[in-house]
Amino acid sequence: MTQTTDYSDNSFALPSLTKSASDDIQEKFIAAILFSCALVSVFTTFGIIFIIFQETFSFFQEVSLAQFFLDTRWTPLFAQRHFGIWPLLNGTFSTSLVAMAVAIPLGLSSAIYLSEYAKPKVAAFLRPAVELLAGIPTVVHGYFALLFVTPALRNFLPLEVFNALSAGLMMGIMITPTVGSISLDAIQSVPRSLREGAYALGVTKVETIFKVVLPAALSGISASIILGISRAVGETMTVLIAAGQQPRLTLNLFESVATLTAFMAQISGGDSPRGSLNFKTLYAVGAVLFVITLALNLASYIISHRFKEKYE
Amino acid sequence: MAQSTQSDNSLNSAEFTDNIDGREKVGKVFEILFLIGLLVGLFVLALMLLNIGHDGLSSLFRPGFLTETPSRFPERGGIRPAIFGSVILGLIVILVAVPIGVGAALYLEEYAPKKWWTAFIEINISNLAGVPSIVYGLLGLGVFNYLLGFGATLISGALTLALLSLPVIIVTAREAIRSVPDSLRNASYGLGTTKWQTIQNHVLPYAIPGILTGVIISVSRALGDAASLVVIGAVSFLTFDPGLFQRFMALPIQIFSYITRPEPGFANVAAASILVLLFVIFALNGVAIYIRQHFTIAK
Amino acid sequence: MNFKLGRKNKLFWLLLTLINSTIVTSCGTNKGGAEQQVSLDGGAVGFSLSLAVAEEYSKLDPAAQVSVASSGTGGGFSKFCAGSIDIVGASRPIRKEEITTCKKNGIEFIELPMALDGLAVVVNRENNFAKCLTIKELNTMWNSKSEEKITSWNQINSKFPDGKLLLFAPASDTGTFDYFTQAVTGKTKNSRTDFTPSHNQNTLVQGVIGNKYGLAYVGIAFYTQNVDKLNVVGIENPKGECVKPIPIANVQRNLYNPLSRPLFIYVNKAKAAANPSVERFVNFYLENSWKWVDASGYAALPDIAYYKIRQRFEKRETGTRFLDAKPGQPITDFL
Q1: Which of A122, B133, C89, C243 has the smallest set of CB atoms within 10 Å of its CB?
Q2: Residue of B nearest to C60 (CA)
Q3: Domain range holding A142?
């Protein structure tokens, strides 16, 4: 503001430069409303924790912790009931493992290529394409896994119709954009000066990437991988459609397995009346799922904030 | 690239050779590997779209597919109730989640003091963004279906999806608001405006493109989510367009239901429904990209 | 600041009006319709028949608002006894616990059998040794005691080859599973757990088609849709005859025994009285479902049964007659 105005002339009404009481109240009121908006998120978390753990507590009145954590069979719906959580954890673990085995190489490669090698015009075209992959609903991945990938792979692998491999592969494709875009941000935020310094020392491009850029971006990349694992663990539709619902303790990827999420979907869409022990298993399994994803999300948050390299 | 002088023996011992050519070759190999990594994902995307298009296009263009109610015969009927359900779900998510999300973001960026509880709220939101959608389904089941007594109706599904979308809207809105330069705010305060006036007239308009992008990404995730609606209790067959307090359907649920039906023609109808859903989601994302590119104000 | 607020504001208000009008109209379709809503939920078996009836009914009465969900028989009963649905489709009779819950909530139910289902035991097309199985052999195959012990075909019957037993069955929370296990082992849900389960019986069929030594039990509909890809096993009935579930008359005349079972709908008596649409729908169901029963893959009841069941509904007769029913009893015993 460079013009000066002579305000001594009282020929026009001047907005008061001192705060009036009504301004203050309005401001406070608005601040209160906005604060309550922020609180909705806190209530959401407390709501989740309260609802899940209330029913889980009720579940553990009937099933002992030892049964839950030491039994190796999960058969709550059969005449001989077993409540060992390990088969479900195994299903989640094996499908997530396959998914990350796909997502980490593909995601990192995409991030490295888009950041270090691709011409800007090409990158501007390819990045939205990768984001498009991220927007595809997971039922579509499940459909493709069951009706295309499994029949195709069955031509040369002894796969069951439902198996962990096809579901895991499609989950990996689904998670690749997550790993890729967060890693891309991390890699791009490494200052050029670091790279240029390495080039000045005679290091080739690929050596710079492996020895300078990636270590510098490691916190962001690790955060992206952990976030990817969290998404794999929490994924429901792909495994529900393609991995089957047979709780098994097995490392054989060609067989059908049941994940935590698939079991939850099965119970909530199925036959167990509300209030029954079977229905409470829904919440007990949900509690395990919530705790696992909470731990992974917290780890990702801490790594990306605490260990972020500070440049300049 | 520094060249070692060949005549200096201390640099050209047996332990150290330039081997520039060898290293460059390795570099080229890796460049190709990285490119392949990038292309594999895109290739699978193209394969998916081709496969689904092939399976579903003929069903999609059958007259009445978009305007009729479902039938037990795959070659008849349509998916109108599911489309209607998804549209209403999307609208309610926007109506509910956007004000609350933007409000929360404004609070965290403009008003919140740097105390321990603001960091707590931040971590909380960051965690909620990663909670699986089926867990949101459990929350919705407990709060909306049972506690508030709405039952397995459209409003329960909509509010659950709104809660699901909230964290992502908050995070992207915060980034958009954070990117508004302080000089703009300070100039406004310098003119004597109140905080809210500054936000309303200067900060928000500047941040709207970024906020819109986040809203659209969040809504397209909500539109594609089936897991939470399975828990809430969406149905498989409706003869009507549902009102807020009635049983409802949505596109992802419709797709899932078709995939699990035995009669052979249903795979095609599932594929056609997927095409409709993908069209809506891609259109929304296209709008987001357009907004981002044309309305982002260069700093 | 060159951001045109004026234009954006107009857009905002336009969008808001649009949204509000959509919400209001959707609420509007709700208000006039309380008497036009009919909600069904129930088992996966019987679902296709209810779908057919709902679809045909809505052609006659386009203003009707019928919703059909498939949460499973138990889940359906849970909602029914809580009063949140009008009609539950069940692939087994109502159980004692469910009767108690309904009573506690003041829900009176009218029990209406509406079709017969046969559980087909299917094997691979190349399986030419398992042509007839006895209930005893099925028990050996499926009993929970056989878990990990009975793993090959020749342990079922020494004349069968030594091939690995590959079992497929409906998931353990379905009415079909309950019924089969009760009929074969004598105790509901008494089953081994090392089989491939699914809620989608079509995938069970696919499993058997793809495996030479596979075996599954599925609703008859899933066999008839895949007649050229599967073999169906005859079951030895109490009279010693080896009977297959097709021709469907075997199911209707209770020759295919004990794997024939009635399918039911249970109607909320109060809703039938208060809501004319529910009454019309149920009458339509009882009078016309026989037309679509075959296409849906089930067997129609004997004509005399339909007559007696319609009378039951007219008289609004509540309570169940199937509480102590054993698998294999003909339906006419109960009418």
Answers
A1: A122
A2: B239
A3: 94-245+288-306
Contact across the interface for A246 and C196, Cβ inside 8 Å: yes
Q: What is the CATH number of domain C118-260?
A: 3.40.190.10
Beta-bridge partners for C230 = C124
For residue A166, how far is the Cα from the chain centroid?
20
Strand partners, C120: C218
* Per-domain residue ranges of chain B: 9-60, 80-295
**CATH T-level fold of C38-117+262-334:** D-Maltodextrin-Binding Protein; domain 2 (3.40.190)
Residue C144 touches partner A, C-beta closer than 8 Å: yes
Which residues of chain C neighbour A240 with C-beta distances below 8 Å? none
Neighbour-count burial for A207-221, b at 16+ CB within 10 Å, e otherwise = bbbeebbbebbebbb
Contacts of C199 in chain B (CB under 8 A): 260
Count the domains in chain A: 1
Tell me what pLDDT residue A10 has.
53
C71 and A245 within 8 Å at the Cβ level: the answer is: no
Residues of C in contact with B233 (CB under 8 A): 69, 71
Residues A160-170 pLDDT 10s = 778 899 999 99
Whether residue B101 is predicted with pLDDT greater than 90 in this model: the reply is yes
Q: Do C27 and B205 touch (CB under 8 A)?
A: no
Substitution target in C85, C168, C173 with the highest count of A β-carbons within 10 Å is: C173
> Is residue A101 one of the residues assigned to a domain?
yes
Q: Does the distance separating the beta carbons of C70 and B239 come in below 8 Å?
A: no
- Per-residue pLDDT tens digits for C94-121: 888 889 989 999 999 999 999 988 899 9
- Which CATH number do you get for residue A180? 1.10.3720.10
**Cβ contacts of C292 within 8 Å, gap of 6 or more:** C49, C52, C53, C56
Q: Which CATH superfamily is domain B80-295 in?
A: MetI-like (1.10.3720.10)
Query: Of C87, C56, C63, whose CA–CA distance to C288 is shortest?
Result: C56
- CA dist A300 and B111 (Å) reads 27
- ipTM of the predicted structure? 0.84
